[in-house]
Write a structure and sequence with these properties.
The chain is α+β, with helices and mostly antiparallel strands. Helix content is about 50%, strand content about 15%. The strands form two sheets. The chain has a five-stranded mixed β-sheet, with no helix packed on it. The chain has a five-stranded mixed β-sheet with strand order 4-10-9-6-7. The two termini are about 45 Å apart. It binds copper (II) ion (CU). Copper (II) ion (CU) binds near residues 174, 317, 319 and 321.
Length: about 375
């Protein structure tokens, strides 16, 4: 019924506008009207002023945007290479800002200055080597410097020599719609894994016949890493394309089914230290103010209030991988090396977990092998699609 009324209202509005334009045309009778469809000097003048108005709009909106949303950009980087990434990003922003401000002003100024005028004739020249040289060389040199700086940063960040560098190897396993982590254990080598081995508590499909797999530790919900130590993440996906995204550490790498990708970084601030960071304190207090307001509304409606927010690092998924992609995340805790060691020592290895789960699963001995076969095809199916 509402839709019907809306259609009627829209139809009546259209008729009203049509009638108004008719009245307007009739009221113009007797005046000198230029119906030539070719812009005259007065039209060109108006267009020129409108262009200046648009230039003012661009400038005002840019300045407004900087003040209104500037604080929403990511704050202090929490990894060693994050400082370099931010520097590169800031240089790019400043360059874009300056070039944009100057070129836009020139564009609209010259459009106005050389607007159509009966008494003016355009100067024709086929080409100007000087002009072409200037507008080719300046951008080429600027871009070359930026790209070289970028390549230098890229190779610094991405090159990891596992043989000579001391790294902690952690696997990140992506699946719709959660992350799991696996520590390589004392040998610092991850055991082999394959989707066919997924069974019961072995949710990562670790090949338990591999000697390197015996001390592997798998965790869900949250994982810990130590401050000041380089962590090498080996990333896998069970089903579709995902992306391991750590915004606070300025790190991102795709999780691709059928291959292992990697990214390494050194955290420089523990979770506790980041919670004390002035920008973060401000951000958290803003969030809690909003939550307190929302809580009042909820309480008034007889619902329970929201808990106050506390900052935590997150591993997010940055590829739209399905319906619950938005909520695919895992808490990351950056500890001091001592706390990290304590936490890791408390974790049970996957081998232990399988052993503990074994009596319960082994009861229907005959059917268990069948289940394995069934499960493996089930899990394998999305990969072959
Ligand atoms: Cu995902």
């Amino acid at each position: 019924m509402t839709a019907f009324f809306i259609i009627i209202i829209l139809a009546l509005l259209s008729i009203a506008i049509w009638q108004l334009t008719k009245i307007f045309t009739l009221s113009q009778l007797g005046r000198t009207v230029d119906n030539s469809q070719v812009a005259n000097d007065s039209d060109n003048q108006t267009q020129g002023y409108i262009m200046f108005a648009f230039l003012a709009f661009i400038y005002i909106f840019t300045i407004y945007g900087l003040f209104a949303w500037g604080h929403l950009v990511l704050g202090t980087p929490a990894s060693e290479h994050g400082v370099e990434v931010d520097r590169l990003m800031n240089i790019s922003w400043i360059l874009i800002f300056i070039v944009q401000a100057i070129t836009q002003a020139l564009l609209y100024y010259f459009s106005f200055k050389y607007r159509g005028n009966k008494d003016q004739k355009a100067l024709y020249f086929s080409d100007s080597n000087k002009l072409e040289t200037i507008w080719s060389i300046i951008p080429a040199v600027t871009l070359a410097v930026l790209i070289l700086f970028g390549l230098y940063a890229w190779s610094n960040i991405m090159f990891v020599d596992e043989k000579t560098e001391e790294v902690i190897v952690v696997e990140l396993y992506a699946k719709q719609f959660a992350w799991e982590a696996r520590y390589a254990g004392k040998d610092n080598v991850l055991g082999k894994a394959n989707v066919r081995y997924i069974e019961g508590v072995n949710t990562l499909g670790v090949d338990m016949s591999d000697a390197y797999a015996q001390d592997d530790i798998n965790v869900t919900g949250e994982f810990h890493i130590p401050k000041g130590k380089k962590v090498l993440f080996k990333i896998r996906s069970q089903d579709v394309l995902h992306s391991a995204y750590f915004p606070h550490f300025r790190a991102q790498m795709n999780a691709v089914p059928g291959m292992v990708t990697q990214f390494a970084f050194t955290p420089t601030m523990t979770t506790e230290e980041m919670r004390q960071d002035p920008a973060m304190v401000q951000k958290v207090s803003n969030i809690n103010e909003l939550r307190a307001k929302k809580s009042q509304e909820l309480l008034a409606a007889g619902k329970s209030a929201l808990d106050p927010y506390t900052f935590d690092y997150l591993l997010l998924c940055n590829k739209i991988c399905g319906a619950s992609h938005y909520n695919m995340q895992m808490k990351v805790v950056v500890d001091t090396p001592e706390d990290y060691k304590k936490w890791l020592d408390e974790q049970k290895s996957l081998a232990e977990k399988i052993k503990e789960a074994a009596p319960a699963e082994a009861t229907p001995a005959e059917t268990s092998t069948n289940t394995v076969v069934k499960d493996s095809t089930k899990v394998e199916a999305p990969e072959t699609k």
